[in-house]
């Protein structure tokens, strides 16, 4: 396939970015999207130009690093797929593909398509953990957890923290990400000790980072590559209200 790529180029955070058009030729339909970008970068290097910066790691759809906004959609046109698992057979010969970084104030652009998602790390540091000493790894069935609860906690735990929900949301809200982390621990026995302080601290850090408010449009869940449910946001709201009702912190 021969394709026209419109790629966001921005040398650093302080510089003004712009869309630059490139042509790539002889792209195999069996290539992944990132392999296609590798071909583009090889062409740019051979031409003595600066290659396009983009984030990636596992290339197996499990690390959440490959955060690209493709033709106006997080991770591209295929539902339930990360950018690294998106294949070029989803496009046609002669297509024009627009590639941008995540658009959110809380995710500043490092360079080109690479953004700083450390805001998510700081939200996790604020409370997305279990600090109680659990000792060595217990036997699988030592702590009884009903299967329905275990399944719901596991589904929440599948969030890979890629930020697609933020990029898809018109308000750049991080509620789906935060709710997945809060729900996962609130559902399990190990997460009960810090249940109330966890949700307060994580929501406070989310607001501090500059993420927008949730208006229940649902675009976050629609674009999530691992299918995190909007039900988690309902759980987060319930947990937050319960924590505030029992807390002395009225801020």
Automatic annotation (TrEMBL):
PROSITE patterns: 2FE2S_FER_1 (PS00197), 2FE2S_FER_2 (PS51085), 4FE4S_FER_2 (PS51379). InterPro entries: 2Fe-2S_ferredoxin-like_sf, 2Fe-2S_ferredoxin-type, 2Fe2S_fd_BS, 4Fe4S_Fe-S-bd, Beta-grasp_dom_sf, Helical_ferredxn, SDH/FRD_Iron-Sulfur, Succ_DH/fum_Rdtase_N. Residues 150-180 form the 4Fe-4S ferredoxin-type domain. Its cofactor is [3Fe-4S] cluster; [2Fe-2S] cluster. Residues 18-103 form the 2Fe-2S ferredoxin-type domain. It holds the Pfam family Fer4_8. GO terms for molecular function: 2 iron, 2 sulfur cluster binding; electron transfer activity. One of its GO terms (biological process) is respiratory electron transport chain. PANTHER family: SUCCINATE DEHYDROGENASE, SUCCINATE DEHYDROGENASE IRON-SULFUR PROTEIN. Belongs to the succinate dehydrogenase/fumarate reductase iron-sulfur protein family. This is Succinate dehydrogenase/fumarate reductase iron-sulfur subunit.
């Amino acid at each position: 396939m021969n394709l026209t790529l419109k790629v966001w180029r921005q040398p650093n955070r302080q510089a003004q970015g712009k869309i630059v058009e490139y042509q790539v030729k002889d792209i195999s339909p069996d290539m992944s999207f990132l392999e296609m970008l590798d071909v583009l970068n090889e062409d740019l290097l051979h031409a003595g130009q600066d290659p396009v910066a983009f984030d990636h790691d596992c290339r197996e759809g499990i690390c959440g690093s490959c955060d690209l906004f493709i033709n106006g959609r997080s991770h591209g046109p295929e539902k339930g797929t990360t950018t690294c698992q998106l294949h070029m057979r989803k496009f046609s010969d002669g297509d024009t593909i627009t590639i941008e970084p995540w658009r959110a104030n809380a995710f500043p652009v490092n360079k080109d398509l690479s953004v700083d998602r450390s805001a998510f790390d700081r939200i996790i540091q604020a409370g997305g953990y279990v600090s109680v000493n659990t000792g060595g790894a217990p036997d699988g069935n030592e702590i009884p957890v009903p299967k329905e609860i275990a399944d719901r906690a596991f589904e929440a735990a599948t969030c890979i923290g890629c930020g697609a929900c933020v990029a898809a949301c018109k308000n750049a809200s991080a509620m789906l990400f935060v709710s997945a982390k809060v729900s996962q621990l609130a559902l399990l026995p190990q997460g009960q000790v810090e249940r109330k302080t966890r949700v307060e601290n994580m929501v406070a850090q989310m607001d501090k980072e500059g993420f927008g408010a949730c208006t229940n449009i649902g675009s976050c869940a629609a674009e999530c590559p691992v299918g995190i449910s909007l039900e988690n946001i309902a759980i987060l709201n319930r947990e937050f209200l319960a924590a505030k009702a029992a807390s002395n912190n009225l801020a």
